[in-house]
């Protein structure tokens, strides 16, 4: 699952390359839209909504359509000079859009559909407030998370219906920075807004073109004394058995979510900085 910052960056690149340009050819390599031809249509804008990419196009008669895609696990959009050689195998291309100045190719897209722009809400309206969106509403996100108080916060943060933009990396990192064990029932998290704020800050800090990193280069006091731990990009993500950058306790790895379920994902946490929630009372 991509993080919201990856989607944001992909949209920025596509928007810079395509906005205002007229499509000279389009090729949708999915059965439902195989015969659709958008040549002559103009790309108006490319915007993210949670982890969805919305490419809005208009016809000379001012019809409005949106090419909606979702990267899921393997997908990517790439921009090439016209006729440029692709860096991914051609058989994985799902959408090809050509203009006079650039080609955009969507590879291995998890979802791809073309919808009327005035019906975008039917596709993405279920999403919670977008951490990177102009309309980020932390109170509404909290209301949604607390509507299911027994769901572990680590699962609630990944549920895009609560708030949109967090993938596994930021879920692990935001829980660490908030001092919250990911298995803590959402209703027992003392300050869920603080966890949101950490996730938002990390997402925003990673909108540039560099490698994703959540640990500031200055690190913490323990980090400064801790030798090679200072090279880590992440506080806990994929750092099982390595020392916590704050307290040096070995980071633990676990799995959260119903076994085999869609929400089952690896988690990493510091057992000291993120104490386990109290066991539920027995009947
Ligand atoms: Zn720790």
Task: Give your account of this protein's structure.
With 283 residues, this protein is of the alpha+beta class. The chain has two domains: 4-124, N-terminal domain of MutM-like DNA repair proteins (Alpha-Beta Barrel), CATH 3.20.190.10; 138-269, Helicase, Ruva Protein, domain 3 (Orthogonal Bundle), CATH 1.10.8. Helix content is 22%, strand content 20%. The protein has helices spanning 4-18, 120-124, 138-146, 153-156, 168-177, 192-205, 221-225; strands at residues 25-28, 42-49, 52-58, 64-70, 76-80, 93-98, 103-107, 111-116, 252-256, 265-269. The protein has a four-stranded antiparallel beta sheet, covered by helices on one side. Strands 2-3-4-8 form a four-stranded antiparallel beta sheet, with helices on one face. Helix 5 crosses helix 6. The radius of gyration is 21 Å and the shape is elongated. The protein starts with a helix and ends in a 14-residue tail after the last strand. Residues 220-229 have low confidence and may be disordered.
